Amino acid sequence: MAVSDERNLLAQDLHDSIAQSLAFLNLQAQLLEDSLRRCDMSEARDTLAQIRDGIQESYDNVRELLVHFRTRIKQEDIELTIRSSLERFESQTGIRTSCKVSGTGVPLSAEQQLQVLHILQEALSNVRKHSGATLVELQMQRDRSYVFRVRDNGHGFDPAALGDATGRHVGLRIMRERARRIGGQIRIDSRAGHGSELTLTLPITQQAAA
Ligand SMILES: Nc1ncnc2c1ncn2[C@@H]1O[C@H](COP(=O)(O)OP(=O)(O)O)[C@@H](O)[C@H]1O
Ligand SMILES: [Mg+2]
Predict the structure, then answer these.
(1) Angstrom distance (rounded) from CA 123 to CA 6
(2) Is the CB of 11 under 6 A from ligand 1?
């Protein structure tokens, strides 16, 4: 992928998670100002609590994005990188993780590895932000195609109900775009109350593995 395309995707990510939080915080700050002017201390305290939560959320998002920016193509096996991402995720979120790897496919190209890692990071980010899960399982099968699966035991959602994401919620769209660029596909299985499962399937051609 061209460097400028990669920058575009990261810029969208940034816009999605940071700009919106700042707009929200701006609004909350105005509300706080209003309450103080009216000497409504109880409302001021509530708003301040919301502002603190908002700042914490933004901070988590920025920290996560910085990790994404730092993701570089290393020559080591993708399995090691995935395992250390999961360890970090577990210690930062308190959500338990497990990792199952099977099969012996040819190694992925550097470009494929990078896109796969970005996709998995966004999937984990969604588990942290939206699922309420206590456990996330990652599976990697490498055979004639690679299959990556991220399953959580959270409250699930209805992907069809999200509609056409214009502006908000670009995470899933960027994941699909990244998958498409390396010839892969993403499927989401989720139902309210039954957790969520994201599957990335990546056919391996000799060319792609070169
Ligand atoms: N693992 C998950 N569990 C519950 N809901 C999810 C999960 N993944 C995604 N969602 C839902 O899908 C929406 C879209 O996700 P995404 O496109 O990544 O946008 P964002 O994370 O910025 O909200 C989320 O806002 C959330 O409602
Ligand atoms: Mg997201």
Answers:
(1) 18
(2) no
Report the top-level CATH class of 76-210: alpha beta
pLDDT band at 12 (very low <50, low <70, confident <90, very high): confident
Tally the C-alpha atoms within 13 A of residue 97's C-alpha that lie toward its C-beta: 21
Q: 64-120 pLDDT, tens per residue?
A: 777 766 665 554 678 888 998 899 899 989 999 999 999 987 888 888 888 899 899
pLDDT band at 199 (very low <50, low <70, confident <90, very high): very high
Q: Say yes or no: CB of residue 28 within 6 Å of ligand 1.
A: no
Largest CA-CA distance found in the chain, in angstroms, rounded = 70
Q: Where are the domains of the chain?
A: 1-70, 76-210
Contact 186, 200 (CB under 8 A): yes
> What ligand 1 atom has the least distance to the C-alpha of 125?
21
Which residue's CA is minimally distant from atom 1 of ligand 1? 127
Which atom number of ligand 1 is nearest to the Cα of residue 150?
1
Residue corresponding to tokens 């699930």: 156
Instruction: Using the mean position of ligand 1's atoms as its centre, give its distance from the Cα of residue 126 in Å.
Output: 5
